[in-house]
Structures are given as C-alpha cells and as structure tokens.
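Quick review question:
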C-alpha cells in the first residue's frame, strides 16, 4: 500500500477478503497514520519512503494511493521495478503524464489498472449489456449527472474548517476542482454505459464565491465547482455530462439516461443502492418504465485481484484512464471555446 489516506481502509478490507493475496507492506511519511493502518490490518513491513520499499522489494504489486500529482513519479518508479500497479483515480494530473504512464506500463507488459470504483454498479453493467445487445436501438441522446452537495450540507463535515475538503477547492493545493475530482467518474460512467467513446467535447466550468475574498486561511478557493460538457459519441449520440458540488439534496448521486430509436434506459446510483429502468417495445407508446433485474458484478478491487492471479490485464486500465484524462484536460483548458475534436482511441 503506497499512501494510507482515507481510501486506504477500503483497499485493505477488500484485499484481506481475497484468500490468495497478502498485504505485506505499507508506505507512508506520516508515522501516526502508517502505524494506525498497519496495526489495524496486520501489515508487517512499514516504510516511510518508496525508496525503502523498493530497496526491500519483496512484493509483486502495489496500490498507489498517493495524492493525485504524485501518481506519475511514483507509478513510473514502480513500473521500472517491474511491479504491477493499481492506481487511484485520476491516473495523473494531466494527459501528458497519463500517456507516459500508459506507454511505460504497456511496454513493460505489467498489469495496470485504475480504481474507477463505480464500475461495480450492477445497473451500469446491465445497461451496457443491453445497449450492446441493441435493446434500445440506435442511441440518439443521453445525459449523465454526478451530483454532490457537500458545499451546501454538513453530511461529510464542515468544508470551511476541514483540510480534507479545503484542498479540493484550491488549485494551489493540487485540486482541479470538480472536474478533476469526480469528472473522471462521470465521464467513465457515461461512456461505459453507452458503450461508445467521446469524439468531441465543448464545456463550461464555473467557480462560485464561497468565502470573503475567495480565501480561507492558506486556501485560495479558485478550483471549479460545476462543470457542463456537451459531447458527441462515436455511436452518433449527442448528450450532456455534468458534475457539481452544489446539488442540494443529493449526497452522492450518479445518473445516466440513454434514449434510442427502440427504447430508453435510466440508471440511478447513490454509491450504495442502484436501479435500472427500461422503456422499450410497445411501452414507448405509453411512456411506461419497468425495473430491470441486474446480476451482481465484481468490484474493481476484485478485478485487480483476478488480474494478479492470471497475469491478464483487467479493466479499466491505464489506456482507458489516459483517454478520459485528455477529455478532462480539454474541459478545463478550453472551457467556453469552440468544440475540440478528440480522435477515438487516442
């Protein structure tokens, strides 16, 4: 385990449940945090730096949970050492670094995956299967939303006083706003469910006033809060992808609606429960929607564990995450400009 931030416990619990995988070491510069996570999960070897862990070397794979802007240098060193890597999202801080990580991992022929956790949603997986089977015909329009409201409510604590949240509002502290934080999730949610890549995107991002002089202590509150993207898909559909932290009444909600020539699908997921509704066949004449049964699906942790067992790379991989990073970079850098073309698969 490289890094022991708040997501580390989820990783630890997931891999402890895998009978043929052992967590042998943790790396963390904060000794209190290192001791706490290692004691809780019985991790024997403890290192303050990646150098120390690599010098020891008695591990096959690493989960990279370092801050976003540290993913690139640490992952590149792990790849050079021949270690399999499961990287937290986003893959890198920018598209250039993401491409370098992708190319290095593929050249080294190592297992490389990214923790896009919402792939675990059974409704999303079933919706994709139905799209690929032609259940809604030719897709014409879609909309994807990621709604959070922690800038409105206190359900995750007070963002005005909590460093865990304040850094997400400050570009100086490494944040790329809602685009960098959850944009990767909703873009992946949309294109995975629609079974099609984005071919062009135009966008708007906005930062709202949240404090006097847009500052709280050392934190300048200049990272974007809301993002709207208008996109074309390779399958011909036109749609909107949006993400915001100002969605009052929504704790952590993702939605995807897809409309085709023979039917429509609607996915709703709140991180814990999900549903899939379908309107197809004769029901399109009466606008009648029915629930769809969705079989269980493995988590991204389980997918990585399977990749470790087999040596066969799983999804989502570095190549996919780099593709999304290109979209996110363009979304921020060219907001309010003309539509920017993105070649599929590049």
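Suggested answer, residue by residue:
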């Amino acid at each position: 385990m490289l890094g022991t931030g708040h997501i580390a416990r989820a990783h630890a619990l997931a891999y402890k449940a895998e009978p043929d995988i052992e967590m042998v070491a943790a790396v963390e510069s904060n000794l209190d945090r290192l001791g706490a996570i290692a004691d809780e999960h019985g991790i024997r070897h403890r290192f303050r730096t990646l150098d120390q862990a690599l010098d020891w070397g008695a591990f096959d794979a690493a989960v990279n949970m370092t801050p976003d802007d540290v993913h690139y240098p640490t992952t590149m060193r792990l790849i050079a050492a021949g270690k399999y890597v499961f990287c937290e999202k986003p893959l890198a801080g920018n598209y250039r670094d993401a491409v370098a990580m992708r190319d290095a991992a593929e050249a080294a022929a190592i297992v490389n995956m990214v923790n896009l956790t919402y792939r675990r949603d059974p409704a999303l997986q079933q919706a994709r299967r139905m799209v690929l089977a032609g259940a809604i015909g030719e897709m014409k329009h879609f909309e994807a939303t990621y709604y959070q409201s922690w800038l409105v409510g206190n359900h995750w604590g007070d963002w005005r006083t909590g460093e865990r949240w304040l850094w997400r509002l400050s570009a100086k502290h490494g944040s790329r706003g809602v685009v960098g934080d959850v944009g990767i999730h909703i873009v992946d949610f949309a294109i995975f469910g629609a079974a099609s890549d984005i071919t062009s995107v135009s966008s708007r991002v906005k930062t709202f006033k949240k404090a006097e002089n847009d500052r709280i202590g050392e934190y300048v509150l200049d990272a974007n809060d809301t993002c709207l993207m208008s996109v074309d898909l390779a399958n011909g559909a036109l749609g909107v992808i949006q993400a915001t932290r100002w969605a009052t009444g929504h704790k952590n909600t993702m939605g995807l609606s897809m409309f085709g020539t023979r039917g429509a699908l609607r996915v709703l997921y709140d991180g814990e429960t999900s549903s899939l509704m379908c309107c197809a066949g004769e029901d399109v004449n009466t606008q009648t929607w029915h629930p769809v049964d969705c079989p269980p699906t493995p988590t991204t942790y389980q997918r990585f564990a399977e990749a470790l067992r087999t040596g066969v790379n799983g999804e989502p991989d570095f190549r996919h995450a780099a593709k999304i990073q290109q979209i996110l970079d363009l979304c921020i850098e060219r907001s309010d400009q003309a539509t920017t073309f993105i070649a599929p698969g590049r």
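Why it works: The longest helix spans residues 177-194. Residues 203 and 331 are 5 Å apart (CA to CA).
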